[in-house]
């Protein structure tokens, strides 16, 4: 089956968006298990010309399968219209040439996005994606060779580190302690992961974020331990499809400063405010394209100096 909406699948899946780690790859096919209407479904997706082709294994309808993939890969977003928008701005017009077919890679599980985004803070893409993979394989439900992300109530029960595991188990040698969060390479983020798991198990229904306006959603997500403005905007953009979010860090600051402020030093909060006000409903996509344009065009190396 083919969804006739243009996409660059490799670029989208491997773009470092904190919705989830990249899907498993075997040759030209990407695969993963996704919960659809409460049913675990294994999807296989691959590039077919400029479109996405797929098959699936699970007890759902073809329409449900297609709708799920349309959401995850944001295939209803009008890329052609967005490129026309970019071409109307001198500072942005070159970006579609470097990032053609790049789309949002949205989270089928918003809790996974929360933890992925917390793990991504001050971290490389390679390291945070490995951490999330490890969490899934240690404590997630297995379906064939794929793993779901654990539910918050299950992750809440996980040991923080070797010491807690050693003191709370019958293990005789602390070097044998591997069933804990820090063993997944999350470092200082382990307590944040536990507190976030507690929050979404006991106090906050994460699914309510979908029905909120951006401002209210942003304030609610800021209550999550380990989440500042940049991580909150990542969660809202990649986890809940709030396209007005403009995740801003030191790299986006440098790019925006170079493109719009003659390289002047401006604060990250001001960059976020500028991006949201200037690009409005396109802010999330502009940020996504800015970052990858800077990586792929050589601008990022120039800005490092």
What would your notes on this structure say?
- This protein has 305 residues and is an alpha+beta fold.
- The chain is 48% helix and 11% strand.
- It has 15 helices and 7 strands.
- The chain has a 5-stranded antiparallel beta sheet. It has a two-stranded antiparallel sheet with strand order 6-7.
- Helix 10 crosses helix 11 and helix 13 crosses helix 14.
- It is globular.
- The model has no long low-confidence stretch (mean pLDDT 94).
Summary, kept brief:
With 305 residues, the chain is α+β, with helices and mostly antiparallel strands. The chain is built from 15 helices and 7 strands.
Secondary-structure map:
Layout: E1 2-3, H1 9-13, E2 24-26, E3 29-36, E4 39-48, E5 51-57, H2 62-72, H3 79-87, H4 95-99, H5 110-120, H6 125-139, E6 142-143, E7 146-147, H7 152-155, H8 162-168, H9 190-203, H10 214-221, H11 229-240, H12 250-260, H13 268-279, H14 283-297, H15 299-304
Antiparallel strand pairs: 1-5, 2-3, 3-4, 4-5, 6-7
The rounded distance between the terminal residues' Cα atoms is 47 Å
Fraction in beta strands: 5-15%
The global form is: globular
Question: What is the H/E string?
Answer: EHEEEEHHHHHEEHHHHHHHHH
Largest sheet: 5 strands, antiparallel
Supply the number of helical segments: 15
Report helical residue fraction: 40-55%
Low-confidence stretches: none
The residue-averaged pLDDT reads 94
Annotation, overall tally of beta strands: 7
Report the structural category.
alpha+beta
Strand order of the largest sheet: 1-5-4-3-2
The radius of gyration is 20 Å
């Amino acid at each position: 089956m083919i969804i006739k909406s243009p996409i660059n699948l490799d670029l989208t899946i491997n773009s470092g968006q904190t919705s989830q780690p990249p899907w498993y790859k075997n040759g030209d096919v990407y695969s993963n298990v996704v919960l659809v209407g409460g049913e675990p479904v294994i999807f296989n997706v691959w590039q077919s010309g400029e479109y996405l082709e797929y098959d699936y294994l699970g007890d759902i309808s073809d329409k449900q399968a297609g709708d799920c993939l349309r959401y995850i890969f944001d295939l209803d977003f009008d890329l052609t219209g967005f490129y026309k928008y970019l071409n109307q701005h001198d500072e942005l017009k070159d970006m579609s040439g470097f990032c053609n077919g790049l789309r949002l890679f949205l989270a089928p599980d918003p809790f996974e996005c929360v933890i992925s985004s917390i793990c991504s803070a001050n971290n490389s893409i390679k390291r945070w994606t490995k951490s999330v993979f490890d969490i899934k394989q240690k404590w997630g439900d297995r379906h064939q060779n794929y793993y779901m992300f654990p539910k918050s109530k299950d992750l809440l029960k996980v040991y923080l580190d070797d010491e807690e595991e050693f003191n709370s188990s019958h293990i005789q040698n602390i070097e044998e302690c591997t069933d804990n969060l820090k063993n997944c390479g999350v470092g200082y983020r382990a307590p944040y992961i536990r507190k976030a798991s507690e929050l979404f198990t006991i106090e906050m229904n994460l699914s309510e974020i979908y029905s909120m306006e951006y401002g209210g959603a942003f304030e609610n997500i800021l209550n999550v331990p380990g989440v500042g403005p940049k991580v909150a905007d990542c969660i809202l953009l990649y986890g809940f499809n709030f396209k007005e979010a403009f995740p801003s860090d030191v790299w986006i600051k440098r790019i925006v400063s170079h493109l719009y402020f003659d390289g002047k030093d401006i604060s990250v909060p001001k960059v976020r405010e500028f991006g949201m006000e200037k690009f409005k409903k396109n802010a999330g996509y502009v940020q996504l394209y800015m970052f990858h344009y800077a990586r792929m065009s050589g601008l990022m190396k120039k800005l490092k100096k």
